[in-house]
Each structure stands twice: as structure tokens, then as C-alpha cells.
Amino acid sequence: MNSAAPALTPTTRALAWCLHLLVIGLLSLAAVRAVTGERPHAGWIIAASVLCGLTYAAGPVLPGVRRSRRAAALWLAAVGACWTVLLALSADGVWVAFPLYFLQLHLLPRRASVAAVVATAVVAIAGFAVHQDSFSAAMAIGPALGAAVAVAVVWGYQALYRESEHRRRLIEELTATRADLAAAQHTAGVLAERDRLAREIHDTLAQGLSSIQLLLRAAERALPQAPQNAARYVDQARQAAADNLAEARRFVAALTPPTLEGTTLADALERLCITTSARHRITARFHLTGDPVPLTTAHEVALLRIAQSALANTVRHAGATTAEVTLSYLGDHVALDIVDDGHGFDPTLLPASDPETGGFGLAVMRARTQALGGTLTIESAPGRGTALAARLPLTPPSATEPEAHP
Question: Edge-to-edge strands of the sheet including 375-380?
Fold first, then answer.
């Protein structure tokens, strides 16, 4: 059991000094009245007052009184004994009972403090009655009322202090929670921005560099026999590099892709098909079905990036001769379908993504569609081509829904 006795209520310096001054004042009053009133045993009264004052003054100086309830109880017993001697010599000692109530309630446990206060009140009433050579109810009112007031004040203060401590702990917990939430939001923001940059880099720079690499390889193969074709491939590679440089500058600034500026999504997809057909040995055709409706920038960017990534995969891996890109407005949904006549593959046997060899395209496309509440489906088989369909609702998901990450 811990013998330490932390104060039940933190008495401020001002209140502590007020209590000290009250005790000194009451003891001085008893000594002064003994001298001026020429009472019998005046010397003894003064000695008892001084002894009581010195005993009381030892409490704040001794560190054990503040640390141990046992030491505090012994000190209070010594002060009480000196006070009892003073009360036996002078009726003026009855007033010292009032600050004793506060000391007992402050330093002792609740049950012990109540018992000490009751005992002090009984001694005060009895001592005052002895000096008056009679007893009446009026003699008991003062000490009893003082004890009741002291109990009410101290217990009320303790209740307020407990409530204050409870509020302080709640505020500290709230502050810590807000700090954790801010850190979590910062981390989420960093991850979201990292995912955005990863998707943009994959769909722009990575695909553009891949296209440039294919064009330069074509130029290398054509150089000995057909220098004019090699020059055309080099020019197309230069144009692809310029286009991707513009893309890089735009997505770093989080702006609309250049291919969507001042035009519609359908026109951007058609230009993408024309550019792909011109740069590579594939015929890409664009089709538009349904009545076009205005789309949000997020929808247009997602569909354009998906088309770019899908056509890049077709050029690099499918060995296809044709690719059909279809943008369909289906009432409350918009759909993008890319179908090629390439080698095809088994969707269940996709290789794992690797920083060296790539393999992030489908994961990035699926993340884009899921972030807007849509779906991405892939149908393919070896030797039967590939069909990719991205379907997005025209009403974006609630902002409170978490964005899917690849």
C-alpha cells in the first residue's frame, strides 16, 4: 500500500498563506487577550499559544508531512494536543478549531477527516462550556456550524477539482487524438498524392518513353535500307518526347492534360487513335455511341488515361493489327471499350508487377475506375484478342468513401 499522501485538493499558495495567517492571528488573539484581560494563567496561555504556533509552523517545513499521510496525521495530532491545552487554559482557543477543520479535511482520508472534524468540534464545544460553567445549545452552534461549513467548502472544492481534472484529461486526450488524426490525414494525403503521381507517370511518361523506344528501334531497323523511313520514325519519336514533356509539366502542376484542353473527350480519344496509328504498325479506330453529356474533369482524365494505357499495352504486347476504341454514353453511365485482334492472354496468369519489367498498367487502370465508383472488366484468351471495358457512373461516389489504391 502506498503511504504517500498527495493532497486531495491542490491548495494554492494564496490559500495556504491565508490559512497560515488565520492560525497565527487566532493564536495571537488568544495571547493578546490573556495579557490585556489580566486573566489568570496568562503566562501559561501565552506559552501554549507559542507552542501551538511553533508546532503548526513545523508542518509546512517538514517534507514528510506532505508526502506521508501517517506523518500528516501525527503532525495534526501534535497540533491538536497543543490546541487542547490552549483551550483548557483559555476560551479564546475555541476559534482555532475552524482552521483545524480545513487542515484535517485537507490532509486526512475522507472518513478519518470527518471523524477528526467531529472530534475537534466536540472538544471545542466542551472546552468552551467548561469555561462558561454551563452549557446551552447556543454554545454548540458556532463550532458545529463552522465544522459543517468547512466540510461543505472542502468537499465542494474537491468535487470541482475532480471535475476539472476530468476535463483536463479529456482535453489532453482530445488534443492527442487531434494530433494523431492530423498525422493520419497527412499520411493519407502523402499516399494519395504518391498514388496520383504513380498513375500519371505510368500513363504518361512510362508509356511515352515506351513509344519513343519502339519508334527508335523501328528507325534503327529502317536506317540501312530506307533512310527516309528512319527519319520519319525519328521525327515521330521527337514529337512523342515533346508531347510527354508537356504531359509531365501538366501533371506535376495537377492541371488538365494537354490533349483535353479546349476539346472534348471524344476528340481527344480520336486524336489518340490517329497518333497511335501514325506512330506504330497498328490501325486504331475510334467510335462514339450515345448522346454525349458533360463529364467531370476526373471522369475525362481517367478515361483518357485508361485509353492511353490500354493502347500502349496493345502496341507493346499484343502484336495486334487493329484496335477499336469505343466511347459510349449509357444514360447514367459512360463506358470505354478497347478491343484488339492481338495474341490475347490468360487474365488469370498475369505476371507480377516489377519495377524493371513493368506490369502496373492493369492495376493502375483498375485503381482509376474504382476511385470513381466504376468497374473494369477484361476478357481475353490466347489467340483470341483482348477486350477491355471501363464503366463509370456519371454521379461520382461520395467524398467520404476511401479511394482505392493499386
Answer: 283-289, 322-330, 333-340, 386-393, 375-380
Q: Over 70: is that where the pLDDT of 158 sits?
A: yes
Determine if residue 319 is left, alpha or beta; phi over 0 gives left, psi from -120 to 50 gives alpha, anything else beta. Answer: left
Which one is predicted more confidently, 31 or 326?
326
Backbone angles phi, psi at 297, to 5 degrees: -60, -40
Answer whether 259's CB lies under 8 Å from 268's CB.
Answer: yes
Q: How confident is the model at residue 324 (pLDDT cuts 50, 70, 90)?
A: very high
The C-alpha angle with vertex 244 and arms to 376 and 327, in degrees rounded to 5, equals: 35
Contact at 8 Å (CB) between 250 and 258?
Answer: yes
Beta strands in 142-197 (DSSP E): none
**CA separation for the pair 8, 151 (Å, rounded):** 13
pTM: 0.44
| 291 touches 329 (CB < 8 A) | yes
Grid cell 514528510 in the structure block, residue: 64
Instruction: Taking residues 2-31, report their average pLDDT.
Output: 68
Query: Which of 236, 398, 253 minimizes the C-alpha distance to 315?
Result: 236
- The answer to whether 341 touches 402, Cβ cutoff 8 Å, is no
